[in-house]
Amino acid sequence: MTARSPLAERSSDLDRLDARELAFVSQLDVRVEPSTAASLGFPTVPNTATTPGDRDFLWLGPDEWLVVGAPGAAGGIADELETSFAGLHHSVVDVSANRVVLELAGPSRHDRLASACPIDLHPRSWGDGRCAQSVFGAAQVVLHERDGATRLFVRPSFANYVVDLLLAASQP
Questions:
Q1: Could you tell me which residues come within 8 angstroms of residue 97 by beta carbon, excluding any fewer than 6 positions away?
Q2: Is residue 63, in this structure, part of any structural domain at all?
Q3: CATH number, domain at 143?
Q4: Which stretches of 87-127 are DSSP H helices?
Q5: Local structure of residue 158 (DSSP, 8 states)
Q6: Would you give the DSSP letter of residue 22?
Q7: pLDDT, tens only, 17-71
Q8: Distance CA 130, CA 20 (A)
Q9: How many Cα neighbours within 13 Å face the side chain of 26?
Q10: Which residue of 10, 58, 90, 162 has the lowest C-beta tally within 10 Å?
Q11: How many domains does the chain fold into?
């Protein structure tokens, strides 16, 4: 059986939004002591993210992070983390199928997101290296600002709804 994204049929809509889907990226939920996480390059400042190499580490809570990597890399990342955390109280869970990832580009992306998201996305408080858990409309999301684009992590069952809300926000 071939994996199929819930947004496979929405490429023209994503193009209209100056967006793309980052299909099937690896996502691991990590729980560990903050001092241990810090020693591996995980951010310890709330609502920040780091990008060491080809992975993103997003701060989700005082002892929780989302590790994002290339498609198909979850097993290898999990093995590396398990080795690093050997003998320590920790949890590493592959949650790759738990969220669809959209990457929004363009100068109007923050305005579109602000139409249904309560957090302050003004450059004075939001920029590269920031992340936050929030809602977009009725959908729980994780936002991550990275390299001049905004990544939006949303549950697959809400993915089409989020694209529809973004399209509605793009209307004059």
A1: 156
A2: yes
A3: 3.30.1360.120
A4: 109-114
A5: G
A6: -
A7: 999 999 999 999 999 999 999 999 999 999 999 998 899 999 999 999 999 999 9
A8: 20
A9: 20
A10: 90
A11: 1
Task: Give per-residue pLDDT as tens, 78-106.
Answer: 999 999 999 999 999 999 999 999 999 99
Residue 116 phi, psi (nearest 5): -140, 15
Structure tokens at 68: 């994002």
Amino acid at residue number 10: R
Q: Mention every residue, 6+ apart, whose C-beta is less than 8 A from residue 18.
A: 104, 105, 106, 108, 109
- In angstroms, the CA 5 to CA 21 distance is 9
Cα distance between residue 61 and residue 129, in whole Å? 16
54-84: buried (b, 16+ CB within 10 Å) or exposed (e) per residue?
A: ebbbbbbeebebbbbbeeebbeebbeebeee
Q: Is residue 1 part of a domain?
A: no
Angle at alpha carbon of residue 60, lines to 156 and 65, rounded to 5°: 90
Is 3 part of any domain? no
pTM score, whole prediction: 0.95
Structural domain of 22:
11-170
Would you say residue 6 lies in a domain? Answer: no
CB atoms within 10 A of CB 157: 10
